[in-house]
Amino acid sequence: MRVLIADDDPQLVRALRITLASHGYDVLAAPDGAAAVALAAKLPPDLVMLDLGMPRLDGVGVIRALRGWTTAPIIVVSGRTGSADKIEALDAGADDYVTKPFQIDELLARLRALSRRTGGVAESPVVTFGDVTIDLAAKAVTRADTSVHLTPTEWQMLEFLARSPGALVTRQTLLREIWSSDQVSDSGYLRLYMSQLRKKLETDPGNPRHLLTESGMGYRLVPDP
Known about the structure:
With about 220 residues, the chain is of the alpha/beta class. It has helices at about 10-20, 35-40, 60-65, 85-90, 105-115, 150-160, 170-180, 190-200; strands at about 1-5, 25-30, 45-50, 75-80, 95-100, 125-130, 130-135, 140-145, 145, 170, 210-215, 220. The protein has a five-stranded parallel beta sheet, sandwiched between helices. Strands 6-7-8-9 form a four-stranded antiparallel beta sheet, with no helix packed on it. Strand 8 (about 140-145) and strand 9 form a beta hairpin.
């Protein structure tokens, strides 16, 4: 898998290049936003990892430029921790957001999750976690081999998460795709339906392990390894 790293910190880029290469990734690197866009056009990456605060073209500009022609997953790795920065990047088209400093094991896990959903669709029509099986083709959910009844809206929300296993799905995406953002903007709908899904699918709904909330950003379904 070809990964493009766009960051103006040469020491971080060098460390990431060594680490990712040791895990089998083919790594490209660009020192600024404009170079990242040019390199991506020349050698299309399977996944992009970028900082927000880059010279010539900032990270959000890079995301918007790339989203004009590619659906390759984009993960932001940035020192900016404010929710406004995260939301802007995610709204522009980023798939995930990790703040610096980060644990390399977590970053590698995020990369694996994104690589599994290249193209936006789960590799398998079946996603499992705990004793739950989600059959995307049959539009059916079972728990401990017993059918679980979901309302149409609960199914839509679960399906969006299951089609991108391990990846962040933003609140804006869910509101737009399920209810249409022109009609609904209250994320209270999402909290309500997520609560119902956890009651039906999580062993301990108050301490979920698989249907997770990313504060201020959205939700993530974490399947079994």
